[in-house]
Specification:
seven-stranded mixed sheet, 25 helices
């Protein structure tokens, strides 16, 4: 097995050229087998096997630097830098991350997880190198999907001023998570139909048809039309910015890639290498369904089907169903996503109301301000986005939506701990950063029915409003409690005395378990479904503080700026001394791992919460 010869960085350079092809096949088989067990990003990694091999054959790591945009396509890079054993615990708690991590290897020079960042980071590494008199290569690998993000263009504008070598590899597979959209996608995919090329081609063909032997010349030219096309139009966008363009290059041809790296390395400026690859290459199910195998759950290798089947709806399914129904009832309802129509549950809405569905690409900032414009124009926009990615649009929420008090609905999926993708994807900051913005209203549902009710409430509301809900199976407990939603009012589910649990959204389920155990121990315990994190239900908090000895806030959010801290500040400002326990996530980044295990690690599991409550109550 050739892969067994790769035990550390640069071992690939000891292989013969005849071993390259078999190694690529072994890497693909290895990734398919391992990811079928652990889950992970499969299609993107299968597409860059030869590209990654070519980089490791040409460059020398860790002296040379490569920044992977997003980073979910770095599995082959990890294999070629001696981390083969880590794939048995890929994305598991304490195991190897699914993204580049500086703490994991010197060959990972920059942590990534969000899109469109690699060129900016690469320029920083270039400048650091130049200022220190270094000579090492710096390479940023960015996908065509990431070029829908505005940060990439800010960086390209800056890169054009460089007077030293910087290599940008544009991995063009026509996909991000969903198929790419917009002008850059059209530019990269539409070289054959560009006006300068087609006009020249048609004029030349018409002229040759009038000449003796012209048909034979036309046939010969058609054989070389790709070269003619490349001569005339590709890369002009980048060239006009002052960045040298090389390509397109076959990203599955290692020889061609290495020659192109050699050309690029000689230049004393920024250079883009346009590489064409096939997402999911080498595994038919992933080639046919690359979006499904973007972030795959464990699957059966023979057919690509998931090993486990879902029997219950998740929160995304509930959101999808309500949006579809409300789309029928309200012609002003429009939906916006940032390259994730499937992940956010908007696929059904898109299919039914294509003219009212907008996929803006990986451009969360634009999505939010675009929604603000729609709202100012009289529409009812819903921005469906993962919590982790909404962070990127904080200023647009504050400046473009909330200052104007515009009716934009934010449907925030994957809120709280999301598990295997780790620090860059945990949605544990949204309560804090959204609560800090005036005019924002912020809700969290306790179960699937309440998410439906909250979305309908939000669509009738006037002003900025956000609903945050977790990844995974929708809780179907407490179905008997479905009281009407009133602005800023909590829902008291069980009212007793002594101890009061104030739980936000997903933590209501945990609070139920906590209450059951507290009562078994012999204490009285109330349970409140907070519903509104902003505005605070001050009246209910005051009543609970008067009638209970201990208040316990529970939230799947960091402590700083979260619900519990807001309650604490409110009580302190009123001079109320009722004891309070803040159950939240410590102010730190939470690594990858199974969500239930992460709950225990950060102290959100029922057993840990009960222990904290009993210890405090006994000592009071």
């Amino acid at each position: 097995m050739i892969l067994e010869k790769i035990n550390q960085a640069n071992d690939i350079q000891k292989l013969s050229k005849e071993e390259w092809g078999p190694l690529a096949a072994e890497i693909r088989q290895f990734l398919i087998e391992k990811i079928s067990v652990t889950g992970g990003h499969l299609a993107s990694n299968l597409g860059v096997v030869e590209l990654t091999m070519a980089m490791h054959l040409f460059f020398h790591f860790p002296e040379d630097k490569v920044v992977w945009d997003v980073g979910h396509q770095a599995y082959t890079h990890k294999l070629l830098t001696g981390r083969r054993a880590g794939f048995d615990v890929l994305r598991k708690y304490g195991g190897m991350s699914g993204f580049p991590k500086r703490k994991e290897s010197e060959c990972d020079c920059f942590d990534t997880g969000h899109s469109s960042t690699s060129i900016s980071a690469g320029i920083g590494l270039v400048k650091a190198r130049d200022l220190q008199g270094g000579t090492q290569a710096v390479v940023s690998v960015i996908g065509d999907g990431a070029l829908t993000g505005g940060m990439a263009y800010e960086a390209l504008n800056n890169a054009s001023q460089l007077k030293s070598n910087f290599i940008i590899v544009l991995n063009d597979n026509q996909m991000s998570i969903a198929p790419n959209v917009g002008g850059m996608s059209n530019y990269l995919n539409g070289l054959r139909t560009a006006g300068a090329y087609t006009g020249f081609k048609e004029g030349l063909q018409n002229t040759l048809e009038l000449l003796p032997g012209g048909e034979r010349v036309i046939r010969q030219l058609k054989k070389t039309k790709s070269g003619l096309k490349q001569l005339i139009i590709p890369g002009m966008l980048f060239e006009n910015m002052g960045i040298t363009y090389l390509g397109p290059v076959d990203g599955h041809d290692i020889d061609q890639m290495m020659k192109t790296f050699g050309e690029a390395r000689r230049l004393k400026q920024a250079v883009i290498i346009h590489v064409k690859t096939v997402k999911g290459k080498g595994y038919e199910p992933a080639e046919r369904h690359p979006a499904r195998f973007h972030g795959a759950e464990p699957f059966q290798i023979e057919n690509g089907l998931p090993k486990s089947t879902r029997t219950k709806a998740n929160y995304t399914d509930v959101f999808s169903t309500v949006m579809r129904k409300m789309g029928d009832r309200d012609e002003k309802l429009v939906a916006i996503t940032a390259a994730m129509p499937d992940g956010t549950g908007l696929k059904r809405f898109r299919n039914m109301f294509p003219e009212r569905f907008f996929d803006v690409g990986i451009a969360e900032e634009h999505a939010v301000t675009f929604a603000a414009g729609l709202a100012a124009g009289g529409m009812k926009p819903v921005v469906a986005v993962y919590s982790s990615f909404l962070q990127r649009a904080y200023d647009q929420i504050l400046h473009d939506v909330c200052i104007q008090n515009l009716h934009v609905v934010f449907a925030i999926d994957r809120a709280g701990l999301v598990g295997s993708d780790g620090e860059t994807h945990q949605g544990i900051f949204d309560l804090s950063y959204l609560s800090s913005i005036p005019n924002m209203t912020l809700l969290a549902p306790k179960n699937k029915w309440e998410l439906s009710d909250m979305l309908k409430f939000a669509l009738k509301y006037q002003g900025p409003i956000a609903i945050r809900y977790p990844r995974g199976e929708a809780y179907d407990g407490l179905g008997e409690f479905r009281r009407p939603i009133q602005t800023g009012k909590s829902e008291v589910i069980y009212e007793e005395g002594e101890i009061a649990l104030l739980a936000v959204g997903s933590m209501v389920k945990t609070a139920e378990q906590v209450r059951r155990r507290i009562k078994e121990i012999g204490y009285h315990c109330s349970l409140v479904n907070v519903r509104f994190v902003k505005p605070l239900d001050e009246d209910t908090i005051l009543e609970l503080a008067k009638s209970h000895r201990l208040l316990v806030t529970l939230e799947e959010n960091v402590r700083c700026g979260g619900f519990g801290q807001q309650v604490q500040d409110f009580l302190c400002a009123r001079g109320i001394t009722t004891e309070l326990i803040n159950v939240s996530i410590p102010d730190e980044y939470v690594e990858h791992g199974n969500v239930e295990l992460l709950y225990q690690e950060v102290g959100l599991d029922a057993q840990t919460v009960v222990k904290r409550i009993v210890t405090r109550y006994v000592s009071m």
